[in-house]
Each structure stands twice: as C-alpha cells, then as structure tokens.
Structure to design on (835 residues):
C-alpha cells in the first residue's frame, strides 16, 4: 500500500521540473558556484582590505603576495578588490540588460503573436531588419551618439538582445493560440486578456526562463567585448571585460592581471550556462524523465 | 618474394615518410621571418603609430604623417642623418643669404624631377607657398609662413595680390625668399614638410588651390619629388612607398621601398616586432620598457626627443575659462611620479612648456603643489571640488595615454575632490575633436618642427591653427611678432622667455613631461642615429643582414 500511494502521487508540472533539475548535478553545481561568486562580489567591501581605486604608484605592479592576493596593476591598485568590484558591474550588466531584453522581447513577441495579421507581419519584419544589422556596430552607434553611462550600457545591450526572444515568444504564442484548451476558453466566453494571463503566459514561462539564463552570459560577454573596445565601463571603474582587456595587453610582463579576472569570468560563464542547460531540460515537458 | 616485396614496400614507405618529414623540417628551418626577407629585398618595415590622416603636406599635422611625407618629398634642404642642427642639400644645390639673413636665394638643381618625370622648378615652390597661405584653403600650419614678408597680410586677407608676398622665382631654377626680419635658423625650418614643393599641374587638375578635399593624394594621382613614390595605401592596413626612378639622387638611395604599418595598439605592435614582422617598433608598451632595458638593451632605444607632453584645456568652456581653475588643475598633477613610475623611459617632468635646450632655459616654472591647488580651486568657487562639473579627459586610443590619464584622474580627485571621466577616440576623430574645440581637457603633445624654442611657442598665437585651446593673448602675439623680427639671439631668447612666462601664468595647457623617444629597432637597420628631432632622411638609411 505504501508503495502504491507513492507511485500514484500526482505532481504538478512545476514539481516534476524541480525534481528533474535537482537530478542534474552539473546545473546544481553551477547554481552553487554562481551564488558563491555573486555573494563574494556583493560582499567585496567587507572581504577586501583595499579600495579598488586606491593607487600606489610607488609600489607599482607586483605579483600576488599575502597583502595583495591577486597582485597589483600598473598603478599599484589591488587586483583582488578590482576583480570583485568588476564582478559587481559585470553581473549587474548581465542581469539588468537581460531584464531590458526580456521586457521588450516579451511585449513585442506576444503582441505580434496574439494579434496576428498585418501587425504581426510588420512587427516581425522590423525584427528581421534589426537582425540584419551587425549588432556590435549598433551598440557602438548608441554608445557614441549618447552620453556614456552605465544605464545606457544596460539599455544598449538589452536593445540588441531582445530580438531572438521576441521570435521565441511570438512562435510560442502562435502555437499556443491553436491549442484546444485555448479554443475551449474562447468558446466559453473568457475575456482575451484573461486568456493571455491565465493560459498563455504560464505556458510561456518555461522557454523564457531558459532563454533568460542563457542571455545573461551572452550579455556579459558582449559587455566584455565592448569594454575590450574601450566603449564599456569607463575608468577608474572596472568590469571583468575591461580587466581582461588590460591584462591581455600586459600578458608578457604581468600575467596575473589576465589570469585572475579570466578565471572569475569564465567560471561564472560556465556556471550560468550549466544552469541554463539544466533548466531547459527540466522545463521541457517533452523531455524524458 | 612476397616477403621481400613487402619489406621493400615498408622501406619505401619509411623512406618516403622520412624524406617528407625531413623536407618539412628543412623547409621550416629555411622559412624566414618577413623581416629577414624584407632585409634581403631592402624593404624597410616600419611601425608608424596611428593611421595617417592624409598625405597632403599642407593639411596634415601629425607625426605619423610627417614620417611618410619625408619619404615622398624633398625640400630645398634635407635632414642630416645624425646632426639635428645641420642641413644637407636637397632640391637646392646651394644657397646664399644677404648680410642680416633676411633675404635668401636658393639655386635649384636642374636635374630635380617630379615622380611623373616633369622637371621641378622654382615656380612649383612659389605655387605651393601660395597654396598654404591662401586664406580660403585654411591650412592649420599657415602661421608657420608668417616670417615671410607680407605672408601674414595675405593670409589674413589684408592684401589680395600674392605677388606682394616675397617668394620669387627669379628664373626656372632660382628661388628667392624675403623674411620680415633676420632669421638665421631659416634653413632648419625649411626641412619641415609644410615647405615641400607641390606639383602645380596636378593640384590644378584636381580642383586647384582652394580645394581641401582634393583627390590628388590618391595613389593613382599622387606626384611627389622625394626618393620614394606612393605605391599603395590601404586604410588601416598599410601605406607602401617604392624607390622612385626619377629622383635626382637615386644612386644614393639604398632602400627599394618602405612599408608603413599603422598599428595603434602598442602591445600589438610590439608583438609584431617580436614575431619578426617589423624592423622598427614605433612605441614600446610601458610595461615592457623595463624588460627591454634589462634583458635586450641592444633592441630598445631611448633617445631624447624634442617634444613636450601636455594637457590642453578648452578655455572657451566654463569653468576652464577661469585661469585659477586651470592653474589648480595644472598644479595638482604630480609629474615626477608619472615619469618615475609610469612612463619609465627616462622622460623628465615638465615644469615649463618649451623643451629645454642648452642655451634656452625658462624664467618661470610650475611645480606640483596640491596645497596651493586646493586654495585656488576654493577661490574659484569650488571648495573641495563642490559644484565642479564632471569634465572629460579626451585621449587618443593608446594604452600609455590611458595609464597616464587614469593617474591624473586620481590625482585630481585626491587633491581637488573633482571627478573627471576619460574618453578615448581614434586618432583621426581625436584630431577633429581637438581642432573643433569639442573637448574639455585633451591629452596632447607637441614635437618641435625645428631646433628653436619658437617651434613650441608659435603654436599658441591666437590665430594659429595649432592653438586649439581657444586661448587668446594680445601681449603674447605681440611678443611673437617681435621675436620674428629680431636677429640678435640673446634678445630673441629673452623675448621667448617672456612669452613662455605668460603661457605658464595663464596655463591654457598643463605641461606633464618632456618626451623621450622609446622605440625598438632591428639590428639590420643601418643609419638610424639618435636625433633630438626624429626626422629620418630615408635615402641614407640602409638594411644589412647582421
């Protein structure tokens, strides 16, 4: 009897997904690592003994010591402090830009998909046109036209990352619209707005979460590419991208300037990608148990 | 039989593998770096900093352009390979001046030719002087020519007839130039690229005297008179010149060609040099200086260089229009620390503006003084930097400038409590911004065009195209005119010291350090001597495998 009840226990799709996710060791590990790094970066002022912008030109660039765990840069600034503070900016850019991309993408995609017809055609052609623009040039254009600021950086990156999401959302909506349960709801006279929120949105969340987790690392990479070009974070602030850029220039003389930020950056990217992969497998109802 | 055959086969295969492997090894050993091959072909591979803005001698102002123009043209007189204050004959085979050195006559060599074969005449020189002085042409270096009689009046529109300007072609091969006063250094000045002759027919063909966007500088149209001629120019990739077969002294020219590579990133350029792709690395990344000085001292060269590194203030933008603010900013830069810990190439902190020469010393200097700076910024209405707008430091894209800018950003924050941003721009964009006063504070440098303090001081004349700060001072302009009319060296220096004192009182600029030329050079380059003015007569440079 005991066994019988166990096997016939009814679980909601969310519970199913949660169980599947827990079984995926890589993504659990990814989740733990990412949380650790984020906490470390957030607690930077408490952990690090040094101000990230405090220069000591007399001390100059030195390899790691017990005083400076990651060594110091050309101006004698503590690299440990700079890496943690850089992480705050990189992670912030990653999440903020993803939120921007999500907002635009979902609004755009669901409007196009739900209303359909000529509006859909026009909106999706706009997406196609934006797609055809080389995105890095688009960002550079935005960054040079307007005053450079962190906010603009978030928006600029979010602005190029929403396109794929809009397509995914639209595809889902178009597909879901024809589902029998939606038709049933329509026939029963449920208000279109209620249909959207009660029936369509819950079914969208899966792919959107997956895409969002995979967008965060993509955005962080884009930010580092921009910092690499000198368009991202402005000195004296640093992000992982700008630190890696500085380090790459001085790799022969001061290799630690490249090594430490790179370890942090790539670990975070790996962790986020594992989480994303795990979520995709877990949230896909068609995937096998 | 079968066994034997298979053995033979094996041996054959083994042999084949061995030979092909040996061939691979052999070919690897034989493969030469681009530098080795170029040395054999006598082609000089030069890193040349930023992408050149152009090849029109009357329009460019930068050092990368100057290096290229010195290969494509030749002036009346030429640079000596090792001595800065000595000239060697160029287009002029001899010259003479009147007693007080105010009227100069040049006798041009009859065999001088343009790269298209046309004979080079005195009229070409007159034409080209007329072009740079034409008011509507708007050359930034035009004030360089104000020492010629009536040139200033013509350039400022006071006289319309160019014939009144004292530049005369007495005949096809005799050129006479009259100056507003005695000027013994005139020959040194003539080597500068703005004084090069231009091919009048070509200029006329492509829009004439006033056309700034002329197509004559395109490789297909280009006509020069130098030891080399323009072969190809691919933007951001390469500018190549090849030995000219019409140059009068072509027998002396050893090099078959020069390739100028624009590599803005110092670390990239240094990597290219190490990989054997360049004979000459234009700049050394700051972090590599110590390595070369200790490990490969024969590769690195640290030569004195006739230039000053400074920050320009845009004096038309508040609060930089207040001299007190500018002074506070200038006084709070710790120049000694910058040269000691950052630039590392033996540069000297600049407490004045003109590069110090043996016989010229400043009478006023400004030293690092954060206390006084703090007092001044409070007096100007920004106690502890309160209410001070967020200004931007404009730099051109290069690590060394960024490193210095970051340290100055920090110094200003520490001493004055003000926040500034750093903005970097690519060389051409940066030059445009600076020319159009679209900046707050701009990283700058000035390399003296000839060995005289006036080469530094003349650029801050109110009307000079190289002023680029919006700063105007009548007294300064008056003294400059006086210098140009004074022959006595002691009097000249006294006047110039006064000019420099005015500049350092008003501070449209904040001097940082006196340059040192840091570069890497391959041992095969012959004839690249240390020079205060880094101009090279390429016709006397040679390549020899060491």
């Amino acid at each position: 009897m005991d066994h019988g009840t166990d096997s016939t226990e009814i679980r909601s799709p969310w519970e199913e997904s949660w169980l599947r996710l827990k079984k995926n060791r890589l993504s659990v590990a990814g989740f733990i690592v990412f949380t650790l790094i984020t906490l470390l970066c957030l607690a930077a002022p408490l952990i690090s003994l040094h101000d990230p912008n405090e220069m000591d030109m007399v001390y100059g660039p030195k390899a790691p010591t017990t005083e400076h765990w990651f060594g110091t840069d050309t101006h004698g600034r503590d690299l440990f402090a700079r890496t943690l503070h850089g992480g705050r900016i990189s992670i912030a850019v990653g999440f903020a830009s993803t939120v921007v991309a999500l907002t635009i993408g979902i609004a755009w995609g669901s409007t196009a998909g739900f209303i359909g017809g000529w509006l859909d055609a026009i909106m999706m052609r706009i997406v196609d046109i934006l797609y055809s623009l080389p995105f890095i040039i688009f960002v550079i254009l935005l960054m040079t036209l307007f005053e450079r600021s962190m906010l603009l950086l978030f928006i600029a990156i979010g602005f190029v990352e929403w396109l794929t999401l809009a397509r995914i959302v639209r595809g889902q909506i178009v597909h879901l619209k024809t589902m029998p349960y939606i038709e049933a709801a329509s026939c029963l006279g449920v208000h279109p707005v209620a249909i959207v929120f009660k029936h369509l949105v819950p079914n969208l969340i899966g792919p959107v979460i997956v895409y969002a987790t995979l967008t965060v690392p993509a955005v962080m990479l884009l930010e580092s590419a921009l910092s690499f070009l000198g368009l991202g974070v402005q000195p004296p602030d640093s992000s992982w991208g700008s630190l890696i850029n500085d380090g790459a220039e001085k790799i022969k003389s001061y290799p630690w300037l490249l090594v430490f930020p790179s370890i942090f950056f790539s670990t975070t990217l790996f962790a986020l990608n594992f989480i994303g992969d795990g979520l995709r497998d877990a949230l896909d109802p068609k995937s096998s148990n | 039989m079968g066994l034997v055959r298979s053995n033979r086969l094996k041996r054959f295969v083994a042999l084949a593998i061995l030979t092909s492997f040996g061939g691979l090894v052999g070919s690897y050993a034989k493969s030469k770096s681009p530098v080795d091959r170029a040395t054999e072909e006598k082609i000089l591979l030069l890193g040349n900093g930023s992408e050149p803005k152009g090849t029109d001698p009357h329009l460019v102002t930068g050092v990368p352009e100057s290096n290229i123009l010195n290969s494509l043209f030749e002036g009346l007189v030429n640079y000596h390979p090792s001595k800065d204050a000595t000239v060697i004959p160029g287009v002029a085979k001899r010259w003479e001046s009147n007693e007080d050195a105010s009227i100069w006559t040049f006798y041009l060599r009859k065999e001088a030719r343009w790269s298209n074969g046309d004979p080079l005449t005195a009229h070409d020189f007159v034409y080209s002087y007329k072009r740079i002085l034409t008011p509507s042409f708007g050359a930034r270096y035009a004030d360089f020519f104000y020492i010629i009689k009536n040139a200033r009046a013509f350039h400022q529109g006071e006289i319309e007839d160019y014939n009144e300007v004292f530049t005369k072609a007495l005949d096809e091969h005799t050129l006479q130039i009259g100056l507003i006063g005695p000027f013994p250094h005139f020959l040194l000045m003539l080597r500068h690229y703005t004084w090069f002759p231009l091919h009048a027919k070509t200029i006329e063909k492509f829009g004439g005297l006033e056309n700034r966007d002329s197509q004559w500088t395109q490789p297909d149209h280009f006509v020069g008179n130098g030891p080399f001629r323009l072969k190809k120019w691919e933007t951001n990739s390469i500018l190549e010149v090849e030995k000219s077969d019409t140059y009068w002294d072509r027998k002396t020219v050893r090099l078959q060609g020069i390739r100028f590579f624009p590599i803005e990133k110092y670390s990239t350029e240094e990597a290219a040099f190490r990989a054997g792709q360049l004979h000459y690395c234009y700049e050394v990344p700051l972090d590599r200086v110590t390595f070369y000085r200790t490990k490969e001292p024969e590769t690195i060269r640290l030569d004195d260089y006739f230039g000053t590194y400074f920050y320009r203030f845009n004096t038309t933008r508040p609060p930089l229009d207040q001299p007190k603010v500018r002074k506070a900013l200038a006084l709070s830069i710790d120049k000694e620390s910058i040269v000691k810990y950052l630039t590392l190439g033996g540069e000297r902190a600049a407490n004045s503006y003109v590069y110090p020469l043996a016989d010229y010393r400043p009478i006023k200097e400004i030293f690092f003084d954060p206390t006084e700076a703090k007092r001044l910024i409070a007096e100007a209405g920004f106690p502890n930097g309160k209410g001070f707008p967020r200004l931007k430091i404009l730099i051109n894209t290069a690590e060394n400038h960024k490193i210095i800018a970051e340290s100055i950003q920090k110094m200003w924050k520490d001493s004055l409590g003000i926040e500034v941003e750093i903005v970097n721009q690519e060389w051409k964009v940066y030059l445009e911004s600076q020319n159009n006063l679209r900046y707050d504070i701009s990283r700058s440098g000035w390399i003296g065009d000839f060995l005289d303090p006036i080469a530094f001081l003349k650029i801050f004349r109110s009307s000079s195209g190289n002023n680029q700060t919006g700063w105007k001072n009548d007294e300064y302009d008056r003294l400059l005119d006086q210098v140009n009319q004074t022959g006595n060296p002691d009097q000249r220096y006294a006047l110039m010291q006064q000019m420099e004192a005015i500049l350092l009182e008003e501070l449209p600029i904040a001097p940082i350090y006196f340059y040192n030329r840091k570069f890497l050079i391959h041992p095969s380059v012959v004839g690249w001597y240390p020079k205060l003015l880094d101009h090279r007569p390429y016709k006397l440079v040679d390549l020899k495998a060491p």
User: Anything to note?
Assistant: Chain B touches chain A at residues 265-267, 285-288, 290-291, 337, 340-342, 397, 399, 402-403, 405-407, 409-410, 421-424 (CB under 8 Å). Residues 63-205 of chain B form a domain with the Dipeptide-binding Protein; domain 1 fold (CATH 3.90.76.10).
